[in-house]
Amino acid sequence: MSEFLIKLAISMTVLFLLYKLFLEKEKMHRFNRFYLLFSLLFSLCLPFITIPVYVSIPTIPIENPVTVSNIVMSPQIPYSLGPDVVLQPKTNYIPYIIWSIYSIVTLLLIIRFAINITRFYRLKKRNQNIPYKGVTLVLIDNNILPHTFLNTVYVNKEEYENQAIEPELYSHELTHVKQRHTLDILFIELLKTILWFNPLLYFYKKAIQLNHEFLADENVIYKNDIISYQQLLLNRSQQRAPIAILASNLNFPITKKRFVMMTKTTPKIKTLALKVASVLTVAGIVYFLSTENVAYAGTQQNKTLTATDSVSPNSRRDEYFKGVRIIIQDSVRNVFINSPYEKLTLKQKQLYLATVPKKKDNPDGVSEEDYKFSLEQKDSYFYIDNIKISREEFLKHKREEFASTGFKMFGETKAGEEMSMTFMLYYYTYPYYNKHIKHLNDHYPEETCQITISKKPVPDSFKIIKSGSEIGKSDKEVIDMRQETTISAATYNFEEDNAKTAHTRDAAFPGGNEAFDAYISKNLDLDSIIKDNEAFIGYTINTDGSVTHVKLYGDNDEKLNDDIKKVFEASPKWIPQQKDGKPITVNRVFTYRKTK
Predict the structure, then answer these.
(1) Nearest 5°: phi and psi at 59?
(2) Which range is most confident: 44-58, 175-189, 355-369?
(3) For the segment 436-455, what is each residue's pLDDT rounded down to a tens digit?
(4) 17 phi and psi, to 5 degrees?
(5) By C-alpha distance, which of 191, 213, 173, 157 is closest to 41?
(6) Alpha-carbon torsion, ordered 267, 270, 275, 277, to 10 deg
(7) C-alpha closest to that of 402 among 54, 26, 156, 16
(8) What is the dihedral of CA 221, 227, 229, 230, to 10 degrees?
(9) Pairing of strands 72-74, 420-429
């Protein structure tokens, strides 16, 4: 929504300034009418227009990076062996208030808009109607100036019967009817009911109405004397103007601009230059606000590359891991590292972070082979820009429209039959790829990168999960916790561990995790007392099942810590954790997250 409003405001402002500074002063009223209406429609549509500009980028080879075997990069997962509680967030009422105010004001303006329209029809129904040169004259008792709405002209009854209305006035109002000026005003008024907060619309309406008067004046003076017509306007300027804001009327406004415009001439060459300037301005707005450069791999030109033409793997690595904490557990070399990337030595970077994904800034397009493969699959599901479509809809698109493709597959095997596979085929257009996929590999997606190197495979539950700063503990405390809950990768004995499985169990709350969630939710309103979106509460489950050492990490509010401590320590006793058939003390971290 914000992008829509910004683009709308920029386009309306630029086009209106061009009109006020150059076009309004010239006698090119028909073009100006089109320009003002086009400016509004164009500005409304502009935010929804995206024009891809395909830029050919030569493919540049990158020197091969060093590779290291036995490196497993584990994904970031929460450090918590205990249950996760997700509570409903505190409702933010500000958006509701804003939308309510907008809806109320809009509704009131729509009602006013409808009342103004019905007022004309009531006047027409209650007063005498006279046919006149293809339009309808409505005779009103009030002392008003002639004014027009659609194909009806409203005039003073007494003046009409006494034939006191000058022919120039009839000609003026008939021009409003024949050129359908009321439709322009209805259009701008409708926009004002929806976008009433945009002040530019009020300036546009005034400019459109003034241009209508220029057009009507031009038609009158084409057949009549300018001086007498100007005198007529001055004589009529003191009469009462119509109340309705939707009417075109003679007295809008009697200004020096209208008088000057009656005698002004604009050379054809100047008119042509202003029209060209208008077109160039529109093109410039489209270029700056709606075009999107889309890079694709072009044909490599035959030339010799210098040292500066290639991308250094070290600089690419520095860019990718900038600001990331690196945690390395290398049991082969007996190395443990927990440090920001920038503090690693070059040797450590090259050894442990040898491979960095290429940037996704050069879409290769979809090959004929891949496209044909997609069409050959039976019972496939097609997605364009992650939106599911039918096969028939997919066939309406050309292969050249897509920047990239991918697929997922799933299958099943029935007794006595071969495995049947079903494909989910994903295709991405160039604009979508450039906006949503192009920058995925620009930077490492997590705050922490964890690497485990071992002689033997290590179960996921034994990996280092988070750094000390992320759970409110020092690095030494994290190492101590790891020694309590983790088996060394170098000495891990799978056979021995399997033999002990029958005598080992995790701590459990009576009734399961859901029961513990319900207990905490009932006794603690974490949603209101914790301001952060995420919080960690550490606690210890003792060998007798009691809970002690409760602490809210990262919060210095002692009262808040005391309140949480009382609830945790008062919980029903847990079934203690057991190892080798014996109960042991275990540390847990209760993770609280607000839903977004």
Answers:
(1) -75, 125
(2) 175-189
(3) 777 878 888 888 888 877 65
(4) -60, -40
(5) 191
(6) -170
(7) 54
(8) 120
(9) unpaired
- Residue 541's DSSP bridge partners are 547, 586
Report the run of H or E that residue 36 belongs to, with start and end: helix 29-45
* DSSP state at residue 243: S
The position carrying tokens 């082969």 is 332
* Percent of the chain clearing pLDDT 70 (strictly above): 74
Helix intervals (H) in 473-557: 475-485, 494-500, 513-523, 526-529
Select from 188, 187, 176 the least CA-distant residue to 149. 176
Which band of pLDDT confidence, cut at 50, 70 and 90, is reported for residue 421? low
Residues 111-154 have pLDDT tens digits of 999 999 999 999 999 999 999 989 999 999 888 888 899 999 99
DSSP helix/strand/coil, 472: coil
Residue at token pair 């050249």: 400
The residues near 174 (Cβ < 8 Å, ≥ 6 apart) are 133, 135, 153
Burial status of residue 336 (CB atoms within 10 A of its CB: 0-12, 13-18, 19 or more):
middle
Tokens 């997606």 belong to residue: 445
Dihedral in degrees, nearest 10, Cα atoms 277, 279, 281, 282 = 170
Around 302, how many Cα atoms within 13 Å sit in the side-chain half-sphere? 0
E strand or H helix that includes residue 561: helix 558-569
**How is residue 52 written in tokens?**
């891809």
Q: Is pLDDT of 432 > 80?
A: yes
Is residue 399 within 8 Å of residue 375, measured between CB atoms? no
Please give the model's pTM, rounded to 2 decimal places.
0.49
Number of Cβ atoms within 10 Å of the Cβ of 490: 13
Report DSSP state, residue 433. I
Distances (CA, A) of 265 to 27, 228, 230, 262, 270: 6, 19, 17, 9, 11
Q: Which two tokens stand for residue 585?
A: 């003390």
